[in-house]
Amino acid sequence: MTTAYPTPAHASLAEFENSALFADLKNKAYEHLLSRIEELGAEFGRWSRAAIAQFVALELDSYIRLHPVPVNEEEAHLVASALTRELTGLGPLQTLLDDPAVEDILINGHQEIYVSRGGMLTRETSHFKDDEHVLRIVRRILAPLGRRLDESSPMVDARLPDGGRINVIIAPLSIDGPSVSIRKFRKDPLTPQELVGLGTFNADICRILEMAVQARCNILVSGGTSSGKTSLLNALATFIPSRERIVSIEDTAELSLNHSHVVRLESRPGSFDGSGHVSIRDLLINSLRMRPDRIIVGEVRSGEVLELLQAMNTGHDGSMGTIHASSPRECLYRAEMLAGFAGFQGSESSLRRQIANAVDFIVQIGRLSNGRRRVLSLTEVTGMSDNVISMQELYRYEPQIGADGQEADHWVSMGISPHSPKLLSWWRAQQQSGQGGMR
User: Fold this and answer.
1) Are 173 and 154 in contact (CB under 8 A)?
2) Among 155, 242, 278, 285, which residue has the least CB neighbours within 10 Å?
3) H-helix segments, 274-403
């Protein structure tokens, strides 16, 4: 039996959902539900989602009868749905996690939720009741992962079962309430052809990258935070022949390589006393004993750069990784700096020579002001000159303004042939067939 409630002055359900009345009714009804759940005890934990939804609807109906609230049937159903998500899912996060368009969810305390869609951040109207509400939801996420979050362990970085990543930092380190960052990943990684369709790079660049991967060139994907490095690395891996064995190494497993023979390794943080820590560098050293054809490092950020350079120089051609840098030149500077921090014993000249011999191509990717991800530069490392690593840019992103005043993607070819001997035979064949002209 349904009850006809007085119709309030809200113009739409969306307006009601953002109103103070909705928040107040939801919070008070939630406290009422918690007291009823305590009475039910362990029995509640055995209920299905459908049974919980029915329980919520009946209890909410009872609550509204006892505490006259100016809501109609549709609005009561909206409150019941939110309460059901609270009890069976992840509260305000559930809808965002279910939305395939959402890339990142950022929580700054209980009142601020920001979401990235298409590379652009917007603030959500939904929010949590208080900081304890945030912690309750976060701990529900972390519980199946076996990760601890409290004052003695106030930072957590973990991989979600669906392949996403969650990072949480709480008081006393986070001043204004819990800070939560959730990175979502597509269930089906983008293919190179899909990236061309999305305008990340053009067909000419795609063809060179395909040949570079198949010719076992060593590639670094360089870019800033949320620029699309992981998606690009996933796409490049599809060019690796199926007969080869790949070992991927990451801090938090994010790569989803569409390949038949992949061994995935993930570093392990230490326990509270620091014991049990296994770094990317440890995994990379061990991976050399696992007979890999190629090694893929999710992100080069520390001493593992030394082992990766040595692997690239000693028979593991075709290896790849990502690195945080704002340009191809900065990418090389960062690799050099990380190697120095890791205790490289040789001279500056010998380190640069090792980098120049190891790295064949740098793909620079960036996120533009409109949120679009674009390959900004395709650069080849050609060797050493006067103690400086030499490079030549093959393609550069230079958007053009069309007659309609709109910005259009455009990549300028520098008209230079790849220098790498690994690509020499392919490049000659391309030119003989008339397909090698760079545009």
Assistant:
1) yes
2) 242
3) 280-287, 304-313, 328-341, 348-358
CB atoms within 10 A of CB 243: 8
Answer yes or no: are the C-beta atoms of 166 and 157 closer than 8 Å.
Answer: yes
**What length is written for the chain?**
439
Q: Give the CA distances from residue 232 to residues 16, 269, 321, 322, in Å, rounded to whole numbers and listed in that order.
A: 42, 27, 10, 9
According to CATH, the topology of domain 192-432 is: Rossmann fold (3.40.50)
Which helix or strand (DSSP H or E) is residue 53 part of?
helix 49-66
**φ, ψ dihedrals at 436, nearest 5°:** -95, 0
Calculate Rg over the CA atoms of the chain.
Answer: 27
Both tokens of 210, joined, read 């395909």
Instruction: Note whether 322 and 222 are within 8 A (CB).
Output: yes
In the prediction, which pLDDT does 315 show?
82
Residues 85, 86, 89, 90, Cα dihedral to 10°: 120
Tokens of 323: 């690195």
Q: What are the two backbone dihedrals, phi and then psi, of residue 134, each rounded to the nearest 5 degrees? A: -60, -50
Burial of 319 (0-12, 13-18, 19+ CB in 10 A): buried
Q: Which two tokens stand for residue 144?
A: 């199946």
Of 72, 65, 61, nearest in space to 8 by CA: 72
CATH topology of domain 93-183: Beta-Lactamase (3.30.450)
Q: What angle do CA 409, 410, 411 make, to 5 degrees?
A: 135
Lowest mean pLDDT among 216-230, 397-411, 414-428: 414-428
Facing residues of 166 across strands?
A: 158, 182
The model's pLDDT over 114-169, given as tens digits with 9 standing for 90+, comes to 999 988 899 998 888 788 888 888 887 886 677 778 888 899 888 887 778 899 99
Distance from the Cα of residue 228 to its chain's centroid: 8
Q: What is the largest CA-CA distance in the chain?
A: 86
Query: For 186-217, how does the pLDDT look when each residue is reduced to its tens digit (9 = 90+)?
Result: 777 889 999 999 999 999 999 999 999 999 99
- pLDDT in the model for residue 417: 80
- pLDDT of 8 strictly over 60: no
Backbone angles phi, psi at 358, to 5 degrees: -85, -45
Whether 378 contacts 393, CB under 8 Å: yes
